Amino acid sequence: METGGGLNEAKRWVEELVGRAARVASGAELSKLREAAGDRGSPLSSLYRSMKAIDPALRPEVGRQLQELRSQLDSALEAASAAVLAQEVEATLEAERDDVGGYLCRSRYEGIGSLHLITMTRMELEDIFVALGYAVTEGPEVESEWNNFEALNIPKFHPARASQDSFFLDFGDEESTLLRTHTSPVQIRLMQAQKPPIYAIAPGRVYRRDTPDARHTPAFHQIEALVVDEGISFANLKATIESFTSAYFGPSIKARLRPAYFPFTEPSAEFEITCTICGGSGCRTCSGTGWIELGGSGMVHPKVFEAVGIDPEVYSGFAFGFGIDRLAQMRAGLPDMRVLPENDLRILAQFRGRR
Ligand code: PHE
């Protein structure tokens, strides 16, 4: 019969497509298959079109078989499309498996580790001060309220003591403890532990309840410098600040002192350097001023000498403290300091091998 050939051909064609559907491995293959299945010139479509010409007695049976083929083909396509979708989901999950938050990502980072930019900066600064004859020392991050404030002539009502600025761990009548808000308590520890002459720096981490922004993070690092000897003057302080900033930044960066107030030094000054992000013309990072504050400084206050039992008639001294993170930020040209504690290896890796 004339339709027998057509029906067999359509069956073979459907079988072949069903076979292909079972092996489909990509979205592209699937759409090719769909195209082939919808082809108006296919044996199945031709058979549909020739139904009119078929003997009416045979028509129901041929129609039933046609329906059967059609639905075999449809379900094979459906299964193939579900399989492709599952493969795609699987592939995406696999590709993004290690990309938690976009960093700390094993598959993208295959190098050996290196020192953190802040550690490298601290070590470099230590070298500069060691060359100037300073000893390197450290103090604890959990400090007594006395060392952090009282002994430094910071009275109870001073705003720096308020809980907005400090992380207190323990409130006690006798002795409260807190995460130190600066490295200055190491001045107290140094002067209690040894007699002058003292030429020392104390690097370390400090904490403040600051809202993070381009220049502030609630945990950061400072270096404290303390010099106590006979005949130490403000000129010595200024010269020391100038020599360490130009040793670190190079001669093109200027440093300046501005009168300021710190309870534990008198006179006091803040020191600033040319903003390295904009070269001094003013930008978002330096709030348009062209200068970046690095730290505070001044001559050790007689009240501080008194608290540690050093005779201010015999000795004088200077102290200064500055942010390591800020220095690292300035020399590396990082517009935002918040990237430093984030530890994104894609950023940190750019400073590898500097040390
Ligand atoms: N401790 C001060 C601060 O963190 C800085 C400072 C240190 C000022 C030493 C004077 C002397 O802001």
Any chance you could write out the topology, listing elements then pairs?
Elements: H1 2-23, H2 27-38, H3 43-49, H4 59-96, H5 117-131, E1 135-136, E2 142-144, H6 145-148, E3 167-170, E4 177-179, H7 185-193, E5 198-207, E6 219-229, H8 234-249, E7 255-262, E8 265-274, E9 291-300, H9 302-308, E10 316-323, H10 324-332, H11 339-342, H12 345-348
Helix pairs in contact: 1-2, 1-3, 1-4, 2-4, 5-10
The protein binds phenylalanine (PHE).
What can you tell me about this protein's structure?
The protein has 2 domains: 4-113; 135-351, BirA Bifunctional Protein, domain 2. α1 (2-23) runs antiparallel to α2 (27-38) and α2 (27-38) runs antiparallel to α4 (59-96). With 355 residues, it is of the alpha+beta class. The strands form 2 sheets. The chain has a 7-stranded mixed β-sheet with strand order 1-5-6-10-9-8-7, sandwiched between helices. It starts with a helix and ends in a 7-residue tail after the last helix. The chain contains 12 helices and 10 strands.
Pick out its properties.
seven-stranded mixed β-sheet; rod-shaped; 355 residues; 12 helices; alpha+beta; 10 strands; 19% strand; BirA Bifunctional Protein, domain 2; binds phenylalanine
Give a summary of the structure in a few sentences.
The protein is α+β, with helices and mostly antiparallel strands. The chain has 2 domains: 4-113; 135-351, Bira Bifunctional Protein, Domain 2 (BirA Bifunctional Protein, domain 2), CATH 3.30.930.10.
Return the domain count: 2
The molecules bound to the chains, other than polymers, are:
phenylalanine
Shape: rod-shaped
Spell out the CATH superfamily of the largest domain: Bira Bifunctional Protein, Domain 2
What is the string of helix and strand elements? HHHHHEEHEEHEEHEEEHEHHH
- Mean pLDDT across all residues, rounded? 89
Q: Which structural class best describes the helix and strand composition? A: alpha+beta
Biggest beta sheet attributes: 7 strands, mixed
